[in-house]
Every structure is written in C-alpha cells, then in structure tokens.
Design brief:
Largest sheet: 8 strands, mixed
EC number: 3.4.21.83
Domain Peptidase S9A N-terminal: 7-407
CATH superfamily of the domain at 1-76 and 535-554 and 565-686: Alpha/Beta hydrolase fold, catalytic domain
Number of strands: 38
CATH class of the domain at 1-76 and 535-554 and 565-686: Alpha Beta
InterPro entries: AB_hydrolase_fold, Pept_S9A_N, Peptidase_S9_cat, Peptidase_S9A, Serine_Peptidase_S9A
CATH topology of the domain at 1-76 and 535-554 and 565-686: Rossmann fold
Shape: globular
Enzyme class: hydrolase
Distance between the termini: 20 Å
Number of helices: 12
Helix content: 10-25%
Pfam families: Peptidase_S9, Peptidase_S9_N
Strand order of the largest sheet: 31-32-34-33-35-36-37-38
Radius of gyration: 25 Å
Structural class: alpha+beta
Length: 686
C-alpha cells in the first residue's frame, strides 16, 4: 500500500510581544478572522487534506472499526426507553425506536388514556448532518411545550413552542438562545437567555406568548464579561431563579413565578470567591455555600431577610456537600465521602440527622434522578459502578427500601463475574494520595505484560465518577485494564482538590496523571509504552501536557477537541469563553506571572524536537468551546517538529461542534474508530 503524502500546513511569520516576551506563532493563520464563519479556502483545504489523510491511514483498519462498532451497537438496546415518571396529571418518558439515532418524547394521562407523542426528534433531525435538543419545558398546565434545537453544533439554539392539544407550532420562534427555559406560573410566557455576539449568556429575558421576541423584557443583565447568567426554578416552583457567576463567585436573585416583573429578591451580593445556590421550603431559604469551607455547608435564612444566614449543617472534613434539594416533607443532601457518592434524606423536624441510602458496592456512582414533584415521597435514584450496568431505583423515604425499576439491558449479553474492580491510591511526587478506579478482566495477570487504558479530565472541579461503560468492554475483552485517575483539578475529593489543580497549582494535574501511570507500572498493571491515554476538551490539554513531558510512557493517545493553545486563547478576549475562564487558568493579559505559568505548560507552546507517541486528534469546525484551530495548529506544529515516524492523525468534523457527531450510532462509530486506533498502535489482536 502506498501511503498518502503527510499533510504539511504552511508557516507564515507571526509574532506578538506580551510582558516583554516575544512569541512566534507561524500557524496563527489557521484561525479564520471571520470566525464563527469559516470560509477561508486555504484553511478549509488544509482541514480537508488532513481528513483525507485520516481516512487513508484508517482505511486498512476499517474492518476492525466495523467489528468494534457492531460489538458496541450489539450492547445497546435499540428500542431503549426511560422509566416513566409522574409529574402532575401526566406520566412522562422517552424512547428510541429500533435503528433510531434520536429519541421520542412521550406522555400519557395518569387517569388513563392513550400515549401522546410530545416531540419527535428523529423527524426534526431528518436531513440534518447534526441535531441536538437543548432545553425542553412543558408548561405547568401541560398544554404547551417550549423546546430548543441546535442543528450545526455551534450551541446557538432556536426556541420553538408547540401547542400540545393540536400539535401545531405557535409563531413564537426565538433564535440565538443559550439557556434553560422556565415557564411563568400562569403559563403566559417563559424566561430564557440569549447568547450575545461573543456567545456569552449575559441576560435573562421574559417572553410573553404571541408577542414579538424583539419586545421581550430583559429582567436581568450582567455587565461583567466573565460572568454567565442562568435561569431555573425552585423545587416548589414558586420562585424563578436567575443566577450569575463565574467559576469562583455566584449571585442569586429570586423572582415570583406569579409575577416575574416584580422586584426580585437578591439573596446575597457577590463576594469574590464565594459560591452559593438556593432552594426554598415555605418561607425559608436553603442556601448551599462554600463561604467558610471548600467542603461547603448548608445555611438557612428567612426569605424576608435573605442575608441573615444561620448554619444548619456545617462543613465536614470527609464529606463534600455537592448539592441540596428541598421537597415538601424532607430535603436531600448529596455529596461525596472520601470520593464516594452519598445521598442522605433529612427531615425538617430533625434537619441535622440524615438517613443515608445504603448502596451495595464499595466503589460506585449514585445520585438523584428525575424527581419533578415537590410532594415526592418516593425518590428516583440512579446507580452504577465499573462492573454494574446503570440501574434505576425507587427509594421509599418512609420505609427506607430500594426497589429496582430497571437495569441497563445489554442485548449481546454481559457477565459481571468476568470482571473485577478496585479503588487504588497511588502516591504522587509531592506525597499526595491520588485515587484510581480500575476495572479489569478476572484473569488479568499483574505481570506488566498487559495493556492499560488510562482516562482523566482534571479541570473545572468536574469529577469523573467510576461508572459503567458498554464501549469499554471491547477493550476489557481484549485483555486491557481500564483506569480512571481522579487527579487534582477535579473535585473528586472536595473543592480543595479542585483548587489544588488550578491557577498556580495547575501542574499538579499533569504530575498526578504521570505519577498514576508510573505507579500502575510499578504495581505491574502494565509497562512503559503499553498505556493508551485519552482526554477531551480540558482533558485534551492534559494529553498535550503529558506527551510533552513524558512521551515514552504512552503507546497511543486520544485527544478529542483538545484545549491545547492555552496561551493564545486566554489572551483573546473576543473568544466566547475567555473572560469566564480567567478564574480557572489565570489572566495572562494583565498578570505577568499567569502569562509565564501558562506559557510554561501550554501544550502548543511546548512542542519540541523529540519523539512523540502515536496521536489521534479530533476537532469540530463549529465548536465554540475549543475552537477548531487549536487541534489544527497543534497537529501542524507536531508534524513539523517531532523526530519520530509515529502516526499522527487529525480528524475535523466539518459539520459538528464540541460533542462530536450527534446521534447515538454516529457517536458509537467515532468511539469505535478511537478504540481501533488504540488496538492498532498497541499491536493488540482485533
């Protein structure tokens, strides 16, 4: 087979000087100045050339991709449906049809009657390369549905309103939306937020049905470019919540659902570094906050005096309180104790004594499911582990019993006894114990001979739970172990765990990942060069950092929509996310220390002449989060700089965004491609 010519992106002189340092960036031209429109023919030609190269090199492995895809597809129940849930006078559920890429939304009357199709995603998606349903909100009286769709991956949604009695669409159409939708109490209108030209939601607006959206009332406008505005409602639906904040500070206002034009209640003015969220029970605010401790606490205050905070449940050294939800007869506190999910029921007459729900395994992921009614007495709970498929329970709050409603069905068969899972702790270079969740075949020999797949994220305080994956079975059944490194930068062990992996401590995230890999090698789970690694978005930044620092460890690298051009992005205030990201990474425009730190680890800026492992890089042309040019520039610089002959592939989805292709089977095929790349590069029999 004659291999195609490796794509080469042209270089063009481009320099800029910041804080006395001059940076050369000869691939800067790959950013189309007209973005988010990308029409530059030379840029498009380069991306298409890379895509053609990707297809050519993957062509011999297409039979393997097809086998993996069919394996993965066979593990999915094609006519999958959700467990029905009651909300008011209706029972709601979703269902896929056999062969369907997208779901249908259904309901039927509690009192009896025929099934009613609320929304037909397959019909809406027909003929579209990309389709995604965003907000979905049925009116309080059940007569109307407001929903939002994105048909190109840009995350700019359009609101539509449907009359559920007739099935007709109302004339109310609102493009450019980026938020949830909350109906007013009388269903005469709803609240939402528009994205501004920088793709930032800086507002909350009220739309009255039948009126021109241009006349919608802006209830709140945020002037700080780093903050984002959201709309939601309290559990009792008495209050509409308009919240604003960045990654470290928040501020909440309550608007009466009966009269959103009334003067709002400001719960507490913003204080830098203080976050809080709010629910209500009667005339009392339940405020979940990190004001005194990064493990968070729960305070209450009268709605009439929202600033008078009284501690109800204080912070704990081992229990990280992640959320509080109020119901009529009790409230629920969710969190993690030493990294493991906990759900506790608290009675209003004895609020400090929580009844924890007992789960059957030592390592798992669990949490509240869909519980829409304020008077709920039976709670819907979701549960899974690395060996236990997704399970839906009902928890009776009166008796404390768990009833299994549904266990994820795997049509091709699944035997949990073929696998084992453990929770390890590996010591990082600074002495910190980093948790690792690992699953492996029951006959796995710990002699260093087997391959291992290592995944992590490590940013924004986003924890990666030890959950179940049917796609992962294709690796386990070929002899792999699969590990999740719960590294700093996520909040797996509490908010301080997050703080210890951001800003000036950002390199802890990269070091933790490398040290976990070396620890797994030392424990003979695998060996150097036999580790496949993967991360997406900020996890792709992690991939870029560790291939620069420790390239010899990795046998294959998957970097999906990778945030690798960190320095340039954090200095470009015109990009959608940049101002809101400065609390996470630092502001290199105004802070010389932040500039130097980001410059020291930014993957694109630190590519150097050395051998690199095989790389599979992906991007999305319409991605507003990690713009397409980040993976494109990174791939171009790697090609021009690296000293090895290892495979480097760049695949750009020309009609999709941050999440890759839409549709459940298209996303499966992309997973199959990545798995095939890993097997190919590690020499594992397919």
């Amino acid at each position: 087979m004659t291999l195609p010519t490796i794509p080469v992106a042209a270089t063009r002189p481009h320099q800029f000087t910041v804080h006395g340092v001059t940076i050369d960036d000869p691939w800067a031209w790959l950013k189309d100045p007209e973005y988010p429109e990308v029409k530059n023919r030379e840029i498009l030609a380069y991306l298409e050339e890379e895509n053609a190269y990707f297809e050519a090199l993957m062509a011999p492995h297409r039979p393997l991709v097809d086998r993996l895809y069919e394996e993965m597809k066979a593990r999915i129940k094609e006519d999958e449906s959700s467990v029905p849930q009651k909300d008011g006078d209706w029972v709601y559920w979703t269902a896929f049809e056999t062969g369907g890429q997208y779901r249908k939304w259904w309901r039927k009357p509690v009192a009896g009657g025929p099934d009613e199709l609320l929304l037909d995603e397959p019909s809406l998606a027909e003929g579209k390369e990309y389709f995604r349903l965003g907000a979905f909100a049925v009116s309080n009286d059940g007569s109307k549905l407001a929903y939002a769709i994105d048909d190109n991956g840009s995350e700019r949604f359009t609101i539509h309103v449907k009359d559920l009695a007739t099935g007709a669409l109302l004339p109310d159409t609102i493009p450019g939306m980026l938020s949830d939708i909350v109906w007013t109490a009388d269903d005469s209108g709803f609240l939402y937020g528009l994205a501004n030209k920088e793709w930032r939601t800086d507002n909350a607006r009220l739309h009255r049905l039948g009126t021109d959206p241009a006349e919608d009332v802006e209830l709140y406008h945020e002037d700080d470019e780093g903050y984002r505005v959201s709309v939601s409602e309290t559990s009792d639906r008495r209050w509409i919540v308009i919240a604003t904040g960045d990654h470290v500070t928040s501020e909440v206002r309550l608007y009466p659902a009966t009269d959103p034009l009334a003067e709002p209640i400001l719960v507490a003015p913003r204080q830098p570094g203080r976050e809080y969220d709010v629910d209500t029970h009667g005339d009392t605010l339940f405020i979940h906050t990190n004001d005194v401790n990064p493990m968070w606490r729960l305070v209450t205050a009268p709605i009439s005096a929202p600033g008078e905070w009284t501690e109800l449940i204080g912070p704990s050294q081992h229990f990280y309180m992640t959320g509080v939800e109020c119901y009529r007869d009790f409230f629920v506190v969710e969190g993690r104790e030493d990294g493991l999910d906990q759900v506790a029921i608290h009675r209003y007459d004895a609020p400090t004594r929580g009844e924890r729900i007992a789960f059957p395994e030592a390592s798992y992921a669990a949490g509240l499911g869909d519980n829409p009614e304020h008077g709920q007495t039976v709670l819907r709970i979701g549960y899974e582990s690395m060996v236990t498929p997704g399970t839906v329970y009902d928890y009776d709050t009166a008796t404390g019993t768990l009833t299994t409603l549904k266990v994820q069905e795997i049509p091709s068969g699944y035997d949990a006894g073929k696998y084992r899972t453990e929770r390890l702790h590996i010591t990082a270079r600074d002495g910190t114990q980093v948790p690792v969740s690992i699953v492996y075949p029951a006959d796995f020999p710990k002699d260093g001979s087997r391959p291992l797949f290592l995944y992590a994220y490590g940013a924004y305080g986003h924890a990666i739970p030890p959950g179940f994956s049917t796609g992962r079975l294709s690796l386990l059944d070929r002899g792999f172990a699969y590990a999740i490194a719960h590294i700093r930068g996520g909040d797996d062990l509490g908010q301080q765990w997050y703080h210890d992996g951001k800003l000036e401590k950002r390199t802890n995230t990269f070091n933790d990942f490398v040290d976990v890999a070396r620890g797994l090698i030392a424990q003979r789970w695998t060996s150097e060069g036999r580790i496949a690694i993967a991360g997406r978005s900020a996890g792709g930044e992690l991939m870029g950092a560790v291939v620069n620092s420790d390239p010899e460890l990795w046998g294959a690298v998957i970097a999906d929509v990778p945030f690798v051009d960190v320095l340039n992005t954090m200095m470009d205030e015109s990009l959608p996310l940049t101002p809101g990201e400065w609390p996470e990474w630092g502001n290199p425009i105004t802070d010389p220390a932040a500039f130097q730190l980001i410059r020291s680890y930014s993957p694109y800026d630190n590519v150097r002449a050395q051998d690199y492992p095989p790389l599979f890089i992906s991007g999305g042309l319409n991605d507003p989060r990690v713009t397409y040019w980040e993976p494109a520039k990174w791939a171009a610089k790697l090609r021009a700089t690296k000293t090895d002959n290892n495979v480097l592939l760049l695949k750009t989805n020309m009609g999709a965004g941050h999440g890759g292709k839409s549709g459940r089977f298209e996303s499966l095929r992309e997973a199959a491609e990545e798995h095939a790349f890993v097997l190919w590069q590690l020499g594992v029999e397919g």
